[in-house]
Design a protein that fits this description.
It is a single chain. The protein has about 250 residues and is of the alpha+beta class. The protein is about 25% helix and about 30% strand. The chain contains four helices and 15 strands. A hairpin with a 2-residue loop joins strand 11 and strand 12.
Length: about 250
């Protein structure tokens, strides 16, 4: 698990959005309303801080690792950048391998298209920017031959909200083209809200396939909200019992 911290206003907005769940229940005792608000405070703090990285996957029709997240949009580059609003920068959708330039991620055949960044090391910009048609808080990709000079960043309206290098994913991140540890599906859950992805590499290359993005509930949020609602339910039941006529 990797910890990131969102900007203060987001946590404040979270508290404002959820507080009405408890304060809007006028029949609750002060005790249970306060308990609910305390849970909301913890909920907003937990949801604002943690990014979880996992490596689970399933295989697509071509036998390539892909996301297990139901409803996620998957970009497999078989139809160009379909699934993204735009793809720009120093990258290219390729097939097979080019010695010294790019190598198909493990399990990919020579006919499977994938994204390689950069296309040309002589250019000033060594990254590709992929824009989403919506916002998301989950991202997954089949990351091939993971190197310590590969970087994956997430943007919200052009500003970076999270960033990871190959060393955040595996160690050693040595670009081995066949080892499972450096050719794996990587899931990023509970990311700060984003609508753009930047893939960069200071050397050849950052190869990836089966990108996936979605908005999914944060586990900590669900657990804490359930606890708060349970406390609210207990308050209701107790009030009903004590108000029954003798």
């Amino acid at each position: 698990m990797f910890m990131l911290f969102k900007k203060q206003p987001e946590a404040v907005q979270c508290l404002h959005n959820h507080a009405s769940t408890f304060t809007g229940e006028s029949h609750l005792t002060l005790k249970y309303a306060i308990r609910g608000l305390l849970v909301v405070g913890a909920l907003c703090g937990a949801s604002a801080n943690a990014v979880t990285i996992t490596y689970d996957s399933t295989l697509d029709a071509q036998g390539i690792p892909t996301t297990t997240v139901a409803g996620a949009t998957v970009v497999n580059f078989s139809a160009g950048c379909t699934g993204y609003t735009s793809c720009s920068g120093n990258g290219l959708i390729v097939q097979g391998s080019s010695p010294g330039r790019y190598a198909a991620p493990g399990l990919l055949s020579d006919t499977n298209p994938y994204l390689s960044v950069p296309l040309d090391l002589s250019q000033t910009t060594l990254s590709a920017t992929l824009l989403l048609p919506t916002t998301a808080n989950y991202f997954g990709l089949f990351w091939g031959s993971i190197d310590d000079y590969n970087t994956l960043s997430f943007l919200l309206n052009g500003s970076t909200v999270a960033s990871f290098t190959g060393l955040d994913i595996t160690s050693p991140a040595n670009g081995n083209q066949s080892a499972p540890a450096t050719n794996t599906y990587v899931n990023f859950f509970d990311l700060p809200t984003f609508n753009g992805v930047v893939i960069s590499s200071t050397q050849y290359a950052f190869e990836s396939d089966n990108h996936a993005y979605a908005s999914v509930p944060e586990p900590a949020t669900l657990a804490l909200l359930s606890a708060g609602l349970l406390g609210m339910g207990v308050g209701r039941r107790r009030r009903k019992v004590t108000s029954m006529p003798a």
